[in-house]
Amino acid sequence: MGIYGMVTGKAGKSGFGSASTAEDVTQSIDANHLTAIVTGGTSGIGLEAARVLGMRGAHVIIAARNTKAANESKEMILKMNPNARIDYIQLDLSSIKSVRSFVHQFLALNLPLNILINNAGVMFCPFQLTEDGIESQFATNHIGKISFSIFLIEKLY
Ligand SMILES: NC(=O)c1ccc[n+]([C@@H]2O[C@H](COP(=O)([O-])OP(=O)(O)OC[C@H]3O[C@@H](n4cnc5c(N)ncnc54)[C@H](OP(=O)(O)O)[C@@H]3O)[C@@H](O)[C@H]2O)c1
Q1: Which residues form the signal peptide (predicted)?
Q2: Which one of 3, 53, 73, 85 has the fewest CB atoms closer than 10 angstroms to its CB?
Q3: Which protein residue has the closest C-alpha to ligand 1 atom 45?
């Protein structure tokens, strides 16, 4: 979309602007051969990304810390599109142990990884240290996200 589209709401050179939806930008894309991981796929932008990628045929792995929310999201997506391929692997980005466990489980599935949507994040949370001794917002938004991407990077190329 570019900054022009974000600020003005008008479509930029890509033809998309801030009013464009996930369905708009993926229209006519056949994602049947693709595997996508969406972190934080249980609410907001992540849930919508998971829903629309599933609708376009991608095999979507929802990476989320809350199993109940993940199952509810999966159910909701399947209700709208019974053919969607949606799976869930637990991931708490604020824990290096959990990041490693996710990657171990994902690699064991022997799937390609074509799309990684590093969406999960927190903002303005009260000061707290994680089990790794890192401030929790920094751990989630930076250390966890970067480790996650580094552990998975060879699957992306
Ligand atoms: N919406 C905006 O206007 C806006 C603006 C700027 C940036 N962003 C960023 O865009 C992303 C999505 O925004 P949103 O509005 O859709 O946010 P949201 O509805 O709050 O969703 C955030 C997702 O991240 C997950 N998450 C949080 N901490 C996690 C952890 N430690 N491990 C795994 N998952 C974790 C949440 O899971 P739980 O349900 O378990 O908490 C939730 O599914 C966020 O990173 C946000 O900071 C959003």
Answers
A1: none
A2: 3
A3: 121
